[in-house]
Amino acid sequence: xxxxxxxxxxxxxxxxxxxxxxxxxxxxxxxxxxxxxxxxxxxxxxxxxxxxxxxxxxxxxxxxxxxxxxxxxxxxxxxxxxxxxxxxxxxxxxxxxxxxxxxxxxxxxxxxxxxxxxxxxxxxxxxxxxxxxxxxxxxxxxxxxxxxxxxxxxxxxxxxxxxxxxxxxxxxxxxxxxxxxxxxxxxxxxxxxxxxxxxxxxx
Length: 203
Description:
The protein folds into 2 domains: 79 residues, Glutaredoxin, CATH 3.40.30; 105 residues, Glutathione S-transferase Yfyf (Class Pi), Chain A, domain 2 (Up-down Bundle), CATH 1.20.1050.10. Helix content is 54%, strand content 9%. The protein has a 4-stranded mixed beta sheet, covered by helices on one side. The longest helix is centred in the middle third of the chain and has 31 residues. It is globular and about 45 Å long.
């Protein structure tokens, strides 16, 4: 059984893990923590994640504790032997795009999410626009990668799961209409139609 530490808002980094759990049908139970008011719960997170953030999983079967959403995706892929290619070259390709999401796509979206929705300090317009411009560039990179491919790394993988949940807030936070990126838009529709996908991206 997987213990899945989550929050009440269920943002994109939590949705990544839910996507994977639904795809693999691994048994899990949620431990929800209100990150705004549950001080005891947040402090208790320190024993399993020094950064006191969710998502986190604890695997009762192996004793493993994993934090950081893409690390969780990788762990679950190995556990289920699904959505991670077997050849070294293909695995490296998936890892490359996972790291790009964590270091660039997801990181910048996280900043936009913070300053637009969470922070009481308004970020100066030029800085905010810089983040939006970066996201437009990243969408262009993904659009190019998806040229002639159904999925980011040819076959459906954890790379796709890491990007998909951000799409629901791309337009609201980054002023990006993915219909301007035809390959990315087609990919989003393909992912959206997966039976396991509980959280739909709606244009």
